[in-house]
Every structure is written in C-alpha cells, then in structure tokens.
Design a protein that fits this description.
Elements: H1 2-15, E1 20-22, E2 32-36, E3 45-46, E4 49-50, H2 53-56, E5 64-68, E6 73-78, E7 81-84, E8 107-109, E9 120-122, E10 128-129, E11 133-134, H3 137-140, E12 148-152, E13 157-161, E14 166-169
Parallel strand pairs: 1-2, 2-10, 4-5, 8-9, 11-12
Antiparallel strand pairs: 3-12, 5-6, 6-7, 12-13, 13-14
Length: 170
C-alpha cells in the first residue's frame, strides 16, 4: 500500500506546475510562471534597493533588476554588466531602509532549488513572468515608489520609476 501511495504521489508531483497568480485566481496561459491582476491595477513590483549594485551583486545573474541607491537608478544585469534603465539620476529619498534581519536566501517559484541569488527567483525553462499591467502608470499611480516596475498597457512599454520620473522601455 505504501508503494502505491508513493508511486501516486511521485506521479502527481510530475504533473504539477509552479504557477502563481497574484490578485486573481488563475494565471493567463500555460506558459506563465507569475501573473498579476489584469484590470484596475495600480500596483507594480517594487525592486530591491541596494547600495552599489556593482559591488553588492558580483557576479550577478542575467536578468537581475534592482534600484541602486548609490546613483539612484533602476538597473538590469545583462552580459556581465549593469544596464541603466533610468535615463537620469532618480530620487531614493522615499526609500525606507529595512532594519529586519534577512531570513533564508529568498523565495523560489518554479523549482525546488536554484543557483541564482535573489529575493524572488523565478526558475523555469518553459514559462515566463508577466509584469503587473497598468494603464498609464505615469498618470494613474498616485504615489509610485523608487524601483517600481510594471507594463504600461497604453504605451505598450515597460515602465520603471526611479524616484523622480517614469522611464519607458520598448
């Protein structure tokens, strides 16, 4: 009987998807690992704010996003270098420092382990994340926080807030 239960459990695990929906009951499509509420959304993802990205996260993983408090810019790590997603110096003044001791190494969605380092690691070779979708975040998000990222459904671009202005990427 134990072998039957074990075999059934292992079979069930092989069919499970690690898909997460936030603010709604289901993700859009089978190729989505993380998805957010579709309409009336005014909330984006707040990226981690770190001191000196080039020194704090070396070597970093491609696709790492953060707000660098040193030069007050939103950055992405790609091909062994940090790429600026903010055009000009932002404003990190509203950032509240977290004095709580960190526990664990972060959350992983899509796998049981990972070699990547991050607060939230989405690990999949056949699923992608969908950013929170916001209609005109530059107008509709009342109090954006430095390091906020979302998808602008009006301009059809990625929008990042650097603490001063919204920056848009196609």
């Amino acid at each position: 009987m134990k072998k039957i239960i074990l075999t059934f459990s292992l079979g069930l695990v092989s069919f499970c998807n690690a898909q997460v929906a936030i603010g709604k009951s289901n993700v859009n499509g089978d190729s989505t690992i993380l998805d957010f509420k579709d309409s009336d959304n005014w909330f984006g993802i707040i990226l981690p704010a770190v001191q000196q990205a080039s020194e704090t996260l070396t070597p970093a993983n491609n696709g790492t996003f953060l707000f660098d408090k040193t030069d007050q810019k939103v950055k992405m790590y790609e091909n062994n270098k940090w790429v600026m997603l903010s055009h000009a110096k932002g404003n990190g003044t509203p950032i509240v420092n977290n004095a709580t001791a960190e526990v664990g190494t972060g959350a992983i969605i899509g796998a049981s382990t990972t070699s990547a380092k991050g607060v939230l690691v989405l690990e999949s070779d056949n699923k992608a994340a969908i950013l929170p979708k916001i209609f005109r975040p530059d107008i509709n998000v009342r109090s954006p926080y430095p390091g906020m990222i979302c998808y602008d459904t009006f301009n059809k671009m990625i929008a990042v807030f650097d603490g001063s202005v919204w920056n848009f990427w196609k």
